Known about the structure:
CATH architecture of the largest domain: 3-Layer(aba) Sandwich
Number of domains: 2
Strand content: 15-25%
Number of helices: 13
Largest sheet: 7 strands, parallel
Distance between the termini: 62 Å
Structural class: alpha/beta
CATH class of the largest domain: Alpha Beta
Shape: globular
Helix content: 25-40%
CATH topology of the largest domain: Rossmann fold
Radius of gyration: 20 Å
Bound molecules: zinc ion
Strand order of the largest sheet: 3-2-4-1-5-6-7
Amino acid sequence: MTLQTQLSKIPVTIITGFLGAGKTTLIRYVLENAKGRRLALIVNEFGDIGVDGEILRSCGIDNCPDENIIELANGCICCTVADDFIPAIEKLLALPNRPDHIIVETSGLALPKPLVKAFDWPPIRSRLTVDGVVTVVDGAAVAAGRFADDPEALLAQREEDVSIDHDNPLEEVFEDQLLCADLVIVNKADLINNEQLKEVCEQITAVVPRAVRIVETHEGKVANEILLGLSAAAEDDLVNRPSHHDAEEGHDHDDFDSFALPVPTIADIPAFLARLESIAAEHDVLRIKGFLDVANKPMRLLVQGVGTRFRHHFDTIWPKDTPRAGHLVFIGEKGLSRAALETELARSL
Ligand SMILES: [Zn+2]
C-alpha cells in the first residue's frame, strides 16, 4: 500500500469497557475538546433503548452534528457486524463532510475483537483503519473484586474439567476487552486510594498480553492527544489480540439479560434513588440507567447506576418530539427477573 492511501484512511477509535465503566462520559469529553476536528460516532447499547446516544446528542457540539451520530441499540455490535455495523460505517462515509475521525462506542458487553476483524475486510480496510482500541475500566469496581473469579470455586471446577477458565461471565467479558486494548483508561480513580490503584494496574497488566499504556483518570477526562492518534492499525495485528472466544465459531451474550421498564412521574428524587439502590443490591443488577420525569420540572432527570453506586442530574429539557415518559434500562446476569423488578418499581412509587 502506498503512503498516500495509508494517509487517506479515516482513523477509527473503538471505545470498549464493561457496563458503567464511563465510556459515554469519556466520549463526551472527546467531543467537547475536538478543537475543530470533525468527529462521527457509532454508539452501541445492549438494551433496546438508547440512553448513551441521547446523552451524546444532547451535548449539541458543532463538530459532531446529529447526523454524525448513529445509534445501534438492541444487542451487541460484535454479533451483528455485517447487518448493523458495516451499514452504519457506510452511512458515515457517505456524509457530505467526510469525518476526520470516527469513534465507536461498543456496548458494555461487546467483545471488541470481532469488530476489529471487520476492519480487515477488503472493502473496509481500504478506507478505514483502527487507530486504537481504548478499554475503559471502572477502577473502583475492579478494586472491589467485581471481575474476579471466586478462587476456591474455580479450583474445584478445574479439578473436574481443566478446559474451564472462568465461572464468572463478568470476568470473561472484562478480560476480552483488555486483551484487545491499545490503551487502558482506569476511570473513577478518584474513588480509590493509591494502594488500590496500584493493585488495579497490576491486575490489568497481568491480563494484557502486550505492553500497553495505562492512564488513570476520573470523569473520563483524558486529553484527545492521548486518546486519538495511536496509529495502532489494530486490524493488522489480530494475532496479538487473543480472545476467550477464539476457538468458537460465534459467541453469544446469553449470560446476561436486559430490559427497559416504564417509570411514572416521580416526586421525591432522593427517596426514589434510595429505593433503586436497594433494588440493585437485592437483585444484583449490574446496570440501571435512563431518563425520569420529575413532577414540576421542565428537564428530564438522567439516572445512572453501576451496581449500587448511583448518580443523577437534570440533563436537558425534554425534547419537543419526545413524550415526557420516564423509563429505566436494567442489565444483569442471566435470570434477572423482569416481573420482580416491575413489582419492586411499582412499590417504590
Ligand atoms: Zn457479540
